[in-house]
What we know:
This protein is mostly helical. Among the domains are: 72 residues, no CATH class; 89 residues, CATH 1.25.40.10. The protein is built from 20 helices and 2 strands. It has a two-stranded antiparallel sheet. Helix 2 runs antiparallel to helix 3 and helix 8 packs antiparallel against helix 9. The longest helix is centred in the N-terminal third of the chain and has 56 residues. It is rod-shaped. The N and C termini lie far apart (89 Å).
Amino acid sequence: MIRWILFLLLTLVAAVALGISLHDDPGLVRIFHGGTAIEMTLAVFAMLCAASLLALWLIVTVLIWIWELPRRLRERLERRRQRRARRALTQGLIEIAEGQWRDGERRLVRHATASDVPLINYLVAARAAQLQDADERRDAYLKAAYESTPQATVAVLLTQAELQIAHGQVERALATLRRLQEQQPGHAFSLKLLARVFERLGEWRNLEELIPRLRKTSVIKPEELERIERRTLQEAFVRAGNDGAAVLDGIWRTVPRRMRRHREVVSAYVEALLRNNASDQAEAVLRDALRTQWDDTLVLLYGEVRSSQPEKQLGRVESWLKEHGDSASLLYAAGHLCAVNKLWGKARSYLETSARIQPRAQTYWRLGQLLQELGQPEAAMQAYRKGLELCPEARRM
């Protein structure tokens, strides 16, 4: 605006200066063409030149405007379509958030081609189709998302894997994640999804191999990663359950020291040893674990172990009773070991005390067996009945 004002002022000044100079001497311009001569003052000639230039400028401007008119119309229509697409994206997101999945899906897909971000339209539409159990439409939208924005392959594959996992299509999710790993092996979130898929499919060896890579990322919380590691160790002992105590011992030696404190890992190792008739080794493992950290679950398991020296095993349990006399689990273990050593009276006393402190179906069942051995069938039936009442299955009947 300021430039136009300056231009007009300069033009006015120039016109005034020209008028003053031509006032005293108007000048003469003579133009010859063939046999004709045209004479005019300099002022008239200048006005004609200015008018000619103005007319030429107008003609050129109009021609340019006409030439560019189709492009301007296309751009205007495109801007209008984009505005409608942005409004449709907002409205579609609102509808999906409100649970109107079908309406939101249709709106997003209809305006996807005109959207500034068609990838978002198709990805959100895929999630909406998933919520309606429409797998074919979901996959079609994911394909359209990739075709609209090929550089967003990782985002599309991650979304596809997430939706497949949520829909229970775990094997298809595994194929998708393997494809993603081929393109971007170190992608952290894909490793997290891959761990989830391996766990659901029970592919514990693959999950175990994945743990070092997961540890290098921060995508999984430390406590969740520790849970996964515990589970893989448990499954490792289950797989090697019939391979012999030497193989189990080799696995145990590879277990990190911090993991040897977890009862799930210790229990899995001990149970595998018991399946291989390595009772003495199982007793030693449990004794070391209980010396490090007291745990009622491991105490119960210790009571189930039948070592080659049941008297010494019972002595250890009774020495622990001096410190943990109110432990129902320890009293159960003492009662069970007393029965193994044929100390029937002490066994009954320990089991009944354990049941009073903390009633368990397992305790009543063992007490019933003991009473049956002692020739007291009615008392045994009463113990069995109390144990049955504590079973979750019996309470639901």
